[in-house]
Amino acid sequence: MMARSGGDALKASTSCGIRLHGNFGAFSQGSGYAKDAFSKHKVEKFDLSNLNWIEKIPECPVFCPSKEEFEDPLDYLQKIAPTAAKYGICKIVSPISASVPAGAVLMKEQAGFKFSTRVQPLRLSEWDADDKISFFMSGRKYTFRDFEKMANKVFARRYSSTGSLPSRFLEEEFWHEIAFGKMDSVEYACDIDGSAFSCSPTDRLGKSKWNLKRLSRLPKSVLRLLRMAIPGVTDPMLYIGMLFSMFAWHVEDHYLYSINYHHCGAFKTWYGVPGHAAPGFEKVVREHVYNQDMLSGEGDDAAFDVLLGKTTMFPPNVLLENGVPVYKAVQKPGEFVITFPRAYHAGFSHGFNCGEAVNFAIGDWFPLGAVASQRYALLNRTPLLPYEELLCTEAMLLSCKVSNPGYKVLAPPEEFLSQKSVKVSFVELMRFQHRARWLIVKMGAQIEYKSDVHSTLLCSICRRDCYVAYVKCNCILDPTCLRHEQKLLSCPCKCNRIIFVRENILEMEALAQKFELEEGILDEVHRGNGLSQLADPFFCTGTEGYSPYCETKIEARLPNDSIYKGECVNKPSPAGSTITTSFGLDESSSFSDAHTNSVRRNFSVAKCPQSICSHDSSAMEGSDDSDSEVFRIKRRTTNVGRSSIGDVTVPNSTYRQAFKRLRKAYPDVRHVRLQSESIQETSESVRETSDHCSVPATNSRQNFETASRSWKGGAFPISRKIKQELSEVKLTNDDEASKSENSVRFNRGELPRESPSIELGPKRLKVKGPSTKSISGHALY
Fold this sequence. Notes:
The protein is of the alpha+beta class. 27% of the residues lie in helices and 15% in strands. Helix 7 packs across helix 8 (300-307), helix 13 crosses helix 15 and helix 19 packs across helix 20 (720-727).
């Protein structure tokens, strides 16, 4: 199972039972500073004798959408992002409320719900080799009600009150307590798998798209493309706190957006730093918070590595004094807090409360997602997301989407800004990949199509995902991405080095060139506002005679000709045939530690520029337990350099003859209905363009036999020879069919009720798509 970052916080974790005050013996093993884990002492670098700086922190923006604006969260967030992102965080007041309280959900709808807490030392730290903070597991399990009673008892004992207190007063209390107070520690139940949104059909908020169990999989969310669920990233987690429970300064994994909903209880105070000020934040942390002896390297990346542990807490006045902007939000029940890409944030609870959070991403995330991937690579950290695959897939879907003539009329202006980010990032990636391949070929390497088209491998050196291409040689048997000049220059393999590329690389490059023709795209690329990958000095020198997208020879070997064991390369197919490749994550890669009991979701991408997309159910055999979205691209192998939207693949005479024989045997039959259980609708954006991006159903033998049994509502005999011939038919649409009623509409989460038929040849024999009931009852999130 994939996990969020932050595991460093538990490096020194042990069980401390339920003794939270005065018993440090349980922490003494394996850590020289653990015996003083809760001991307060004066930290000179943090002066909290005067708390007047609290008044200097401005409030973040607060948005109060109408019920109509509240209809689609990603549409609304895309609309406010240009304004709100400047502050790093913002608050949204929900116009509708939950009718089923979170406590009732967790105690009744989820009977037996229990959780463990972490013990947080309530003190400041020197942040040197001998004094740093870790959050320890308590070793005690709570029910929701038991934790509420404990937290309320602590609050009442301190303030002789059970009601809420002014936010400004509690903010001063928190920073005074953390510097000079007598409380040793608090407990915080963070990163708890689950959700407090009700499943009741009468709960308006639970039924809405703002239910965090659904949000990351909405049509405009980039994370909908992931095959597997990631707790806390694609699936929400609960955060149950008490007085002064804190979440330390951190940035979201991969610089993603986050959304946090306050279900119930006391308020929370948030501090946020805008994403554009993140470098300044890291510089201040490196120079004024961390001592050099605890950093593993030089520069801000060393500080970033420690911040990933999510245990660093220090007062915001340190940032204010060094010119880093900070904004504040006080979150109340029924309110959402949004954090924007690369925005550092921290905060604390005013008493017992319950919140829930999840990540999401829209198109404007891609440039910052590239920066995060680059930093993970420098730190040799395994990424949670396959960035290259997400970008390439989103770009191809975008091309299909904007091909709809009416799209530009209907799309809001914010949509085009988001799309521009996708296009610029994709163009930069394609330009980098092409230039890198050209230079490596110039050094003597060859290029071949890779056979493991269903997988995204990780670079053996930096752990990046190698979706587009990777290198192998006799020296380095494991895949290596194209960013390691020293390895490539020092490698003696020369001609024995092979670059493996995806079979649809030419289609992707053609799409990048199409994007470059649009106004402003190349200007952004040349300014380096996208991935900024061309700044590598190795790939910026020695390029005499190079031009973008110039032809590079791609070898096509028979499987037995490959110089690497297990590396099979597809040979060219006969004219008019198709090759099916897959956009997906390999079950053996680190991305595919998929959850069990997850729903399989096969994504049959519609016909895109430079490619024809279709569904192939056989590719998913053996992965019933994976939460999978697989993208398959069907393309012609002849004249690949000149493929176009209008390319048509016509069944050969053998296939036509099979249909003639079948139709002759049953002259009264006009239609064949294929019962496919694999095609699922994933995106409303694809559905909107399906009239121009239609695909056939599946052509597997199993589906054909199912169709045969359902012909005219009863069984009929078909010869084995005809079955075999028909099972091999490769169906594609032509331009006329794509504009007619012969299209399959996609709508995420259910199959089309009645897929229009697809004309095959001059006869009026038709093939219809699947019915809606083949996947009913499956949960999507």
